[in-house]
Design a protein that fits this description.
Rossmann fold
């Protein structure tokens, strides 16, 4: 691939207490590419996603071994500032989780937390982020209304705008459309296509059709192990391994 290698895991093992959730996972994520993580429930997809911005640090019994690299630096190095890491590697969760604040304040939140006090700059970034998230035209006349008044699909795009506002390099998405109706899902998928021009995107999805539609690369996990990774079209049409074929054809799940 000629795109820039942005993130990688190397021999990553992950444990929740005595439970071995990820086994020796080595995977590369490239700029301007969407990588989909697929596999049955409990296979380690979301655990891996949360390792990429150290969200698992919030779980006392969790521990990672091996490396996760962002621009060549191991993010588990004790000198890495986790707040800075999470600004560079943004996350969008399964259920929209806007703050009980205005639309404007939701998007401006990360900028203010990072110490930015320039009102003109904040205002510009909020508009730019809402435009990037394909939401500006729908909310431009009510940015000072509560975000909780938005529809589910709009709330999820608002959460994407909130992640974009602090100018991350990588966007993690944990089943971003699973709580949405088909029309809202289509908007999120169209948005992913637009965003990949500027970001590295890693998405967890249970939906095979969605993985096929939105991703360039697909990685199949089973029981905490990376079974197969390939160009999405190749993986879905000519998988190398029987277990991958069985999963994507619905023989188990």
């Amino acid at each position: 691939m000629d795109n820039l290698l942005r993130m990688a895991t190397k021999n990553l093992d992950f444990h929740y207490g005595d439970f071995h959730a990820l086994h020796d996972v080595s995977l590369e994520f490239y700029d301007q590419r969407v990588t989909a993580l697929i596999g049955p429930s409990g296979c380690g997809k979301s655990t891996l996603l949360r390792c990429l911005n150290r969200m698992n640090d919030l779980i006392p019994i969790a521990r990672a071994e091996g490396g996760v690299f962002l621009d060549g630096r191991n993010i588990y190095d004790p000198k890495v500032d986790v707040v800075t890491l999470r600004r560079r590697v943004g996350m969008v969760f399964q259920k929209p989780n806007p703050f009980p604040k205005t639309i404007f304040e939701n998007v401006a939140y990360g900028l203010k937390v990072n110490g930015n006090k320039d009102k003109a700059f904040i205002s510009d970034r909020v508009e730019q982020s809402l435009r990037q998230a394909a939401l500006w035209e729908e909310v431009k006349d009510r940015t000072h209304d509560s975000a909780l008044g938005l529809s589910g699909g709009q709330q999820q795009r608002l959460c994407i705008a909130r992640a974009l506002a602090v100018e991350p390099e990588v966007i993690l998405m944990d089943e971003p459309a699973s709580a949405l109706d088909p029309i809202a899902t289509q908007k999120i998928e169209e948005l992913i296509h637009q965003l990949k021009k500027s970001y590295t995107i890693i998405i967890v999805t249970h939906n095979m059709q969605q993985a096929a539609r939105v991703s360039d690369v697909t990685a199949f996990f089973y029981l905490g192990k990376l079974i197969e990774v390939d160009n999405t079209k190749t993986l879905f049409t000519k998988p190398k391994l029987r277990r991958t074929e069985d999963y994507i054809t619905g023989r188990f799940g």
